[in-house]
Design brief:
By secondary structure, the protein is an alpha/beta fold. It contains 16 helices and 22 strands. It has 3 domains: 139 residues, FAD/NAD(P)-binding domain; 109 residues, Polyamine Oxidase, Chain A, domain 2, CATH 3.90.660.10; 94 residues, Orthogonal Bundle (Guanine Nucleotide Dissociation Inhibitor, domain 1). Helices cover 34% and strands 22% of the residues. The strands form 5 sheets. Strands 1, 2, 10, 11, 12, 13, 14 and 22 form an 8-stranded mixed beta sheet that branches. Strands 8-7-17-18-19-16-20 form a 7-stranded mixed beta sheet, sandwiched between helices. The protein has a 3-stranded antiparallel beta sheet with strand order 5-9-6, covered by helices on one side. A hairpin with an 8-residue loop joins strand 18 and strand 19. It starts with a strand and ends with a helix. The structure holds flavin-adenine dinucleotide. The site of flavin-adenine dinucleotide has 40 residues, from helix 1, strand 16 and helix 16.
């Protein structure tokens, strides 16, 4: 007689691992099935031969991401401040200007306009109830328009639009016409406010994990290694009988409950028997992933710091990258410049071969930081839309109409199947914190079902 587990967790990202940790602590029998040959999902630390590394996936944590700080403390993981001193650069209309703090040097009308737009988004977002964004009296209006329509309506100057666009594209990882205003507002509220989402100091980019984010994921799994099966893509979930059967090529396992902790776009590829409720199926068809490429130059040292630069750049659509950051390690023993290449800029950039991408990147890095920037020890980049087991990032995006027509269908349990993944979290949706919260919530749903 085959073993019947208390639970099978599908997906070895932070969400599945957070669920696994709770099931392990509660001494439940479970199996975690991961499609890739590694854990961490949308977090991935790429190591070079000499031990240097870059985080090609999620890398930052910040205030109010309580689960992340708690897990890091529990597992002896250290974090450090993101470098945030010196002059920032604004690359606007092919002119480079430097500035300090959050306010770029540009015409006063555009500055006032930027402040107005960001504050307006924050004011509207404050009205969103995270557990039911669709219940707001303005929800149907906000869900009928894209974030682009909002930006076009409220950005009165061209320069305001360009800067707002680069900032918001970096936050949402898409063109602004790919996401509904209601989702944009929900996302802002979910991560506290826009200032938090955009900032390093006191914001979502405040801290990095020493040694990289993916080793953190591996550390979470240390105590239940024996319950993990890598290289095990799940193809079918059958709950037509008393127990749920989960199968893929060459395996079938049985459990009382299942937690699905994979991105919506990949849930669509699993065959369910019986079929998922129509509303869930339809919503899964609507949620598309954003597209982000991370582009790195690795240097002997963070030379830009001694030249008075923070490493931060905001650039309009004439440049291949929306934003740049200093992404050097905790001890600054080498320097890392990180550029975010997002949405249409990413589609264009990653349609070229690596040699061309490197050439374009180094030209821009040199333009911003001088000759030394043209001589990295390593160049590397990564486009997440190209990954079979992510199909994009940072997270699934609600287009117009999706919130008001489908509401919270994504997280609603389906028989013995419970749903995790950052896209099912009300708080810090799209972030690693959201993934952990969702995994913990799904594990508690399973525990409640095991011991009603
Ligand atoms: C470039 C980039 C930058 C980011 N920056 C940040 C940041 O700085 N801070 C932050 O908080 N967040 C950031 N994010 C977002 C963050 O990484 C994600 O929100 C989070 O990691 C999602 O975790 P998850 O467990 O929900 O999903 P995932 O990490 O996607 O995990 C899902 C897992 O399921 C597996 N899987 C899929 N299908 C199957 C199947 N059929 N069978 C078995 N396994 C399957 C996948 O291989 C994957 O391992 C970033 C993401 C990217 C890509």
């Amino acid at each position: 007689m085959a073993q019947i587990f208390d639970c099978i967790v599908i997906g070895g990202g932070f969400s599945g691992l957070a669920a696994g940790q709770i099931l392990h602590n509660e001494q439940k029998s479970f199996l975690l099935l991961e499609a890739r040959d590694r854990l961490g999902g949308r977090t991935h630390t790429r190591h070079f031969d000499d031990g240097k590394y870059v985080d090609i996936g999620g890398q930052w944590i910040g205030p109010t991401q309580d689960r992340m700080y708690r897990l890091a403390t529990e597992h002896g993981i250290e974090w450090y401040e993101t470098y945030n001193e010196g002059n920032n650069i604004l690359d606007l209309n092919q002119v480079i200007k430097t500035y300090t703090g959050l306010i770029p040097k540009m015409d006063i009308a555009s500055l006032i306009n930027i402040d107005f737009v960001l504050k307006k988004l924050d004011r509207l977002a404050k009205k969103i109830e995270l557990s039911n964004p669709w219940s707001n009296p303005n929800a149907s209006t906000w869900d009928s328009m894209s974030l682009e329509a909002f930006a076009k309506k409220h950005c009165y100057t061209k320069n305001c639009y360009k800067v707002v666009r680069a900032g918001l594209e970096t936050v949402y990882a898409c063109e602004l016409n790919e996401v509904s205003l209601l989702h944009a507002l929900f996302y802002i509220r979910s991560g506290t406010n826009l200032n938090v989402l955009l900032s390093i100091k006191d914001g979502a980019q405040q801290h990095r994990i020493k040694g990289g984010m993916q080793p953190f994921a591996e550390k979470l799994a240390e105590k239940f290694q024996h319950s993990i099966r890598l290289n095990s893509p799940v193809k079918r979930i059958d709950q037509s009988k008393a127990v749920v059967s989960v199968s893929g090529d060459g395996f079938v396992y049985h459990a009382k409950h299942v937690i699905v902790a994979v991105p919506p776009v990949l849930i669509r590829e699993i065959e369910f028997s019986p079929s998922l409720p129509l509303k869930k199926q339809q919503l899964l068809q609507k949620l598309s992933m954003g597209i982000v490429g991370k582009v790195f130059g690795v240097y002997e040292k963070p030379f830009w710091r001694s030249n008075g630069f923070s490493g931060q750049v905001v650039a309009d659509e004439n440049a291949p990258f929306q934003t740049l950051f200093d992404s050097s390690p905790a001890d600054s023993s080498y320097g890392v410049l990180l550029a975010f290449c997002i949405a249409n800029r990413a589609r264009e950039f990653f349609s070229q071969n690596e040699q061309t991408r490197k050439k374009i990147t180094l030209e821009y890095f040199e333009r911003y930081f001088g000759k030394e920037a043209a001589q990295p020890i390593y160049y590397t980049d990564h486009c997440w839309a190209d990954e079979a087991w992510s199909k994009g990032c940072y997270a699934g995006l609600y287009p117009t109409g999706a919130w008001t027509n489908f509401q919270n269908e994504l997280a609603r349990p389906t028989g013995s199947i419970f749903w995790a993944g950052t896209e099912t979290s009300d708080v810090w949706y799209g972030y690693i914190e959201g993934a952990v919260r969702a995994g913990e919530r799904a594990a508690h749903e399973v525990l409640n079902s095991l011991n009603p």
